[in-house]
Amino acid sequence: MKLDAGQKRCQLLERQLDDMRNMLQQAEVDRSEALRKSALLRDSQSSSKQSGRTQADKLLELEREQLRLMAMQTLAAVSRQTSISFKFYVYSLTSYFPVQS
Hints:
Layout: H1 2-96
């Protein structure tokens, strides 16, 4: 009787030990998966930040180019307007003071 009770108790403990091993094994698999996902997320975020910086740099460069082109356009317009005004001024002077040959 004691032997049967001891064997049943031993079988119960063996099943509990197997269950604990399975839980430990599953926990290790879950941990590995969580670490892998964390690393992928970190790499993805790093890549996104890098991509974001690259896009921000490109945007900044385009804004600088736009400002440079606008400045050149303004200078050209002022230069053209000044040239037209100067030509008109010269024409006005020649009409008031005709050049005699």
